[in-house]
Design brief:
two-stranded parallel ribbon, 342 residues, 9 strands, alpha/beta, D-Maltodextrin-Binding Protein, domain 2, binds (2R,3R)-2,3,4-trihydroxybutanoic acid
Length: 342
């Protein structure tokens, strides 16, 4: 009988701890200080379209390092370069369906999601990088980020940078707008970019970045436009013979995150991501500028003809109708406020 009783007692202990409902599971852990549940590691997937040697990737590696350090390893960033999670529009859509946790995207393709933010895509709007950073890191940049958050239902973590965009062509070098007449040029899926190239007399062809290299290789398009670091690290010199340093658009990027994912984090975890995003963003901006300095001579060595001082006044003159059209969209005041920021 005694034996039977001890078996029943043992069985009830096992059952109780298995359900975890019994005080035994808490007590034993509490009293014995049993092995604390390993702190849960939050894994976040972030995608971007550029190569694993690009400025985006360098910035992402810095972000990864800072998040690991600031979270004591409880948040892990998994980076997916080369458009492996899709093009920028796909990844932006993925934020709201949960297939992507974060995306580093230029503002270009955001015109289909949050048109307000694309005021920054106006041609020749910013004098230089310093001017752009002052605007984006100030009230105007904050207002644009909150508009993106409201319109798209995503979290914006920080402004990063793609850089000033320049024109590359296969055959004829571009010195003035007339040289673009009839040229099929790939643009981002952005109305302002397309209107701008129409004013140059070109035929803008909007396309995801993931299709661009093949389209150039197959001659589907004659030209494209991108910052110098992209032209180098995406090897466009292999399929484009000429580079004209028009710097016609300043192209900022935004590190976006799924709101559901962000809201699921503790306040400390949110703070880690926000601080690391801003710090890594400043680092990434410096990488862009270092690459731009380094790569122009390297692109020449790769055989590209580089026109470093095109007739910019003629390009600026040609885009006046674009400002006429978009002043009624964004307001003359906002455009003037951006232009006059010192
Ligand atoms: O944001 O699409 C482009 O030309 C961009 O430079 C690229 O996606 C990085």
């Amino acid at each position: 009988m005694k034996k039977l009783l001890s078996i029943v007692a043992l069985l009830s202990m096992v059952l109780l701890s298995a359900c975890g409902g019994g005080s035994s599971s808490k007590t034993s852990a509490g009293e014995s200080g049993g092995s604390k549940k390993a702190a849960e590691v939050v894994k976040l997937k972030v995608g971007h379209t550029l190569s694993d040697t690009s400025h985006y990737q360098k910035g992402m590696e810095k972000f990864q390092e800072l998040v690991k350090e600031k979270s004591n390893g409880t948040i892990e960033i998994e980076v997916f370069p080369n458009g492996s999670l899709g093009g920028e529009r796909d990844m932006i859509e993925g934020l709201n369906v949960g297939s992507v946790d974060m995306v580093l995207t230029s503002t270009g393709p955001m015109s289909g999601f949050a048109p307000e933010v694309t005021v920054v895509d106006l041609p020749f709007l910013f004098r230089n990088e310093d001017h752009a950073h002052k605007v984006l890191d100030g009230k105007i940049g904050d207002d644009l980020r909150s508009k993106v958050e409201t319109t798209m239902g995503v979290k914006t973590l920080a402004w990063w940078e793609n850089g000033f965009r320049n024109i590359t062509t296969g055959k004829t070098a571009v010195e003035k707008p007339e040289d673009l007449k009839g040229i099929k040029i790939r643009t981002m899926e952005n109305d302002i970019h397309m209107d701008t190239f129409r004013e140059f007399g070109a035929q803008p062809t909007p396309m995801s970045f993931t299709e661009l290299f093949t389209a150039l290789q197959q001659g589907v398009i004659d030209a494209e436009e991108n910052p110098v670091p992209v032209i180098m690290t995406s090897r466009f010199y292999e399929v484009q013979g000429n580079l004209t340093m028009t710097r016609h658009f300043y192209n900022p990027s935004l590190l976006l995150m799924s709101t559901n994912k962000f809201d699921s984090l503790t306040n400390e975890e949110k703070k880690v991501l926000e601080e690391a995003a801003v710090e890594a963003g400043k680092y990434e901006r410096q990488v862009v500028q270092d690459m731009e300095k380094q790569y122009i001579s390297e692109l020449k060595e790769k055989g590209m003809k580089v026109i470093e001082n095109p007739n910019l006044e003629s390009f600026k003159e040609a885009v006046k109708p674009v400002y006429k059209k978009y002043e009624s969209v964004f307001g003359k005041e906002l455009i003037a406020e951006i232009k006059n920021t010192k």
